[in-house]
Amino acid sequence: MKFVVSVIAALQAATALAAPSPQTDKSPTAPLKLRAVAPGQPFDGRFLTAKDVNLGIYATKSKTEAFPIYAAEGTGGPNTYSLRKFPKDQDHNELCLLGPPGLHSLVYFFEPRATDPLPPSTLSFGAFTITPAFNELGPAGTRRFLGYRGKSNSRWIAVPTGKGEYDIKYYDGSVIVTQDYIPLRVEVVRS
């Protein structure tokens, strides 16, 4: 039995080492995309796009259109990422979590460090996580999912806005949400 557990642990470690790491400023040739994963939902497999400053699932010309991002070293500690609109974009055009405690919208902000949201809203950026799901394989190997450091019990949700469109929000379970929402995961894929 110990042998089987050791073999499984070794295989998981090998998968983690062999899985491609998120692209960082050292190799900004192709952008990453964010894809909704919600089996059985009408938006499953669709890429996130931008509408004003919000990221979500919106009407687009094609189902392959996506909001491109580049991963740079984050400010939230080891294995965190700043997600940016352009390669080598220093402190500008970042993906952020914006909103009151408990429910944050995924937004795209210019100069987030110079932005001071009105209380009780907060603006968080620079500490996104990209975590492999060792038990799930996609077309390019191990699938990787987006999260945010320090929010382990949180999850992504899609909130309907009408006409088949959805805003993507990060929900930590600390507040009651009376609005309809659909749980999902946000997969990080290479272009």
What does this structure look like?
There is one protein chain. By secondary structure, this protein is mainly β. Helix content is 9%, strand content 42%. It is built from 1 helix and 13 strands. It has one helix at residues 2-18, and strands spanning 32-37, 49-51, 54-57, 70-73, 81-84, 94-99, 103-109, 122-124, 128-138, 141-148, 155-162, 165-171, 182-190. Strands 1, 2, 3, 6, 7, 8, 11, 12 and 13 form a 9-stranded antiparallel β-sheet that branches. A hairpin with a 2-residue loop joins strand 2 (49-51) and strand 3. The N and C termini lie far apart (41 Å). The relative contact order is 0.21.
Q: How many β-strands, per DSSP?
A: 13
| Assembly context of the chains | single chain
Query: Into which percent range does the helicity of residues fall?
Result: under 10%
How much strand? 35-45%
How do the SSEs run, as a string of H and E?
HEEEEEEEEEEEEE
Based on CA atoms alone, the radius of gyration comes out at 17 Å
- The coarse silhouette is globular
Please, how many helices?
1
Ranges with pLDDT <50 over ≥5 residues? Answer: 1-20, 24-28
Distance between the termini: 41 Å
Average pLDDT, all residues: 82
Q: How are the SSEs placed, and which strands pair?
A:
Elements: H1 2-18, E1 32-37, E2 49-51, E3 54-57, E4 70-73, E5 81-84, E6 94-99, E7 103-109, E8 122-124, E9 128-138, E10 141-148, E11 155-162, E12 165-171, E13 182-190
Antiparallel strand pairs: 1-13, 2-3, 3-12, 4-5, 6-7, 6-8, 7-12, 9-10, 11-12, 11-13
